[in-house]
Specification:
With about 170 residues, this protein is α+β, with helices and mostly antiparallel strands. It has four helices and eight strands; from the N terminus they run H-E-E-E-E-E-E-H-E-E-H-H. Strands 1-8-7-6-5-2 form a six-stranded mixed beta sheet. The protein has a two-stranded antiparallel ribbon with strand order 3-4. Strand 5 and strand 6 form a beta hairpin. Helix 1 crosses helix 2 and helix 1 packs across helix 3. The termini are far apart. The relative contact order is 0.19. It binds iron/sulfur cluster. Iron/sulfur cluster binds next to helix 1 and helix 4. The site of iron/sulfur cluster has 13 residues, from helix 1 and helix 4.
């Protein structure tokens, strides 16, 4: 269990570190604002798991609609102008897990902020960027440390890992 928590923590940390570079290279979708009815959202009881990639994750909700399953990730706080890259990658990993678990590719996932929802299209380009990121993470797992991927103090200032990170710029 401790290993799993540690792995998920490292996963989140690396998502954050790598997201800026990945987004620039991959042209990640910025998301489109949508209106949702939260009444149809179902809580996810257990984490989803895809063994070939050793990938696990638990979306906050799943929305079932005419045979399609859409993952929802809930983020506290007001919505940024467009979702953070780390949130997009996290949601993309849930889209992948949903596809592998339920056998049908979700066309998009939803990031739910306090005041706004974004639909993020699960495009082949986003999936490719995710796979490249996961491959890079596997390589980084055997390293003792991973270098910061940006020089933006503002990102560190709003980073939840700032107090733990030895590469923070603030
Ligand atoms: S504090 Fe800065 S360098 Fe460290 S994880 Fe956060 S964004 Fe990256």
């Amino acid at each position: 269990m401790l290993f799993l928590i540690l792995f998920l923590f490292i996963l989140a940390l690396i998502f954050f570190w790598q997201s800026g570079v990945q987004r620039r290279e991959a042209g990640l979708p910025g998301g489109r604002v949508i209106y949702t009815d939260t009444g149809g959202w179902g809580v996810v009881e257990r984490p989803l798991y895809y063994s070939p990639l050793k990938l696990t994750g638990k979306p906050d909700y799943l929305v079932r609609n005419h045979g399609t399953v859409i993952p929802v990730e809930v983020k506290s706080g007001r919505a940024p102008d467009s979702p953070y890259d780390s949130h997009i990658f996290q949601l993309a990993s849930y889209c992948l897990l949903v596809e592998k678990t339920y056998g049908k590719r979700p066309p998009y996932g939803i990031i739910h902020y306090n005041d706004r929802d974004f639909a993020i299209d699960y495009t082949p380009e986003l999936e490719t960027a995710l796979m490249e990121l996961l491959a890079e993470m596997r390589r980084d797992e055997i390293k003792n440390s991973v270098d910061r991927s940006h020089d933006q103090a503002s990102r560190c200032a709003r980073c939840g890992f700032r107090d733990l990170c030895d590469q923070s710029l603030v």
